[in-house]
Amino acid sequence: MSTPVPHPAPAQAALRQAGRLGRRHGKAAAYWQIGDRSDADAQPFYHDLLRGIAGADQQVTGLYETPDLTARWDYDRDSLAADLGLARDDPSLAQAADSYLAAAHEEFWLEAERLARRRLHSGPDHRAAGGDQAGRAHPGPGAATARAEDEDEDDGAAEGADLRQDITDRASGLSRLLSERCSTCILRPGDKMHLGAEQTAAFVRRVLAEGTYVVCHQTLKYGDNPGFGPAICRGFFDAYAGRSPALRLLRAFRRLTEIEPPQPGQPPEGEGR
Within this chain, do residues 56 and 149 fall inside the same structural domain, yes or no? Predict the structure, then answer.
């Protein structure tokens, strides 16, 4: 009796998807643990971070943790299996987990380096860090399959997000979350923004598929309160926080700070609380 030949295509697709999830979570974890400061006092910190990454200095790299598929991260093997559409006892889950962990570990340090270089590049001492090649010596496994393509794409996206949708609270370094829904939240009954049920549902599905979150439209620079500063949509958080890997990690590591929703045309009264 012959043994059935396994179907490699679904397994390879699961591995690729696990790698994408790992890179996404690793990148997010770098921001939440390291922060993204632009003040002059942060320049020495980013210099030290780059030197630590370049030399694989455990005194520096040991200060941070990369996603490890445990309940402590609020994203474990069961979560990965569910996102990949695999059964808990599927033999390919172990390989998918390895792919996820390798990609998350690597992307964490790649994003840490990119973040530090961006901030040093915009600071007074950017030339001092320009010559080292920290990206060639960072700790961790070999390159994920699509790293070269993702690096260019993600770097540009990160720069854009830094200008338009940086939800970081400048005083605390935490991520801003509205304490309640804004008056025209897209998830309020009655379709306050006149998007239509189908378009709203499609938008939510896309955000969930990307594993991220919605930024409240009233807090964007092109919204009604351009000086308020971006913050996570409360309606989306209340409805979907358990299904968004980014929000699960932010919540697990207590990286959220609540702020009152903006009033039309009014600046915020203060930083997050």
Answer: yes
Q: What is the pLDDT of residues 17-65, one digit of tens each?
A: 999 999 989 888 887 788 777 777 778 888 888 888 888 888 788 888 8
Number of domains observed in the structure of the chain:
2
Alpha carbon distances (Å) from 5 to 8, 15, 54: 9, 19, 45
Q: Is 14 within 8 Å of 86 (Cβ atoms)?
A: yes
- Whether residue 149 sits in one domain with residue 183: no
Cα diameter, the chain: 75
Q: Considering 118, 135, 164, which residue would you say is the last residue of a domain?
A: 164
Task: Output the pTM of the full model.
Answer: 0.49
What is residue 131's predicted lDDT score, i.e. its pLDDT?
Answer: 32
Residue 272 lies in a domain: no
Same-domain status, 211 and 160: no
Cα(198)–Cα(205) distance, rounded to whole angstroms?
11
> 2: pLDDT confidence band, cut at 50, 70 and 90?
very low
Both tokens of 59, joined, read: 């005194």
Q: Are residues 126 and 175 in the same domain?
A: no
Task: Transcribe 69-132 into DSSP letters.
Answer: SSGGGT--HHHHHHHHT--TT-THHHHHHHHHHHHHHHHHHHHHHHHHHHHHHTSTTGGGGSS-
Among 189, 176, 264, 269, smallest CA distance to 223 is for 264
Separation between Cα atoms, residue 174 and residue 250, nearest integer Å = 9
Which residue, of 124, 142, 164, is where some domain finishes?
164
